[in-house]
User: Which sequence fits this backbone?
């Protein structure tokens, strides 16, 4: 067996678990979060994360309030964020906040913010 790599950087993608979305809808919302949060990250962090293999972790938040709290903590820590608001064309009401992307950033910094969240 191969030894698991030590990722110093990662991206956390967080979906709201309190609203009904199909699996495909959740995947699309998390993809939006990943792309936009990446776009907001600084050039050096992007490069280091990319070279490491672009680790991503999909997590669940229990409420909109929790999404806002996580975003606030990440903003205060200087971590790139992406708050995703749905257009309402398929499954949910327009303007519904569905997901949050954090990073890429140092894994240890993201763990301080997201360490209590359950995996999706």
Assistant:
């Amino acid at each position: 067996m191969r030894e698991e790599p030590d990722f110093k950087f990662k991206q956390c993608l967080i979906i709201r678990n309190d609203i009904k979305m199909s699996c495909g809808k959740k995947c699309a919302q998390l993809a939006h979060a990943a792309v936009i949060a990446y776009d907001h990250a600084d050039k050096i962090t992007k490069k280091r994360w990319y070279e490491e293999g672009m680790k991503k972790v999909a997590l669940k938040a229990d409420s909109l309030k929790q999404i806002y709290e996580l975003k606030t903590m990440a903003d205060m820590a200087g971590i790139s964020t992406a708050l995703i608001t749905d257009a309402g064309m398929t499954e949910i009401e327009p303007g519904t906040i569905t997901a949050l992307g954090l990073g890429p950033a140092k894994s240890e910094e993201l763990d301080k913010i997201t360490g209590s969240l359950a995996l999706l």
Observations:
- Helices lie at 23-40, 43-52, 64-76, 107-114.
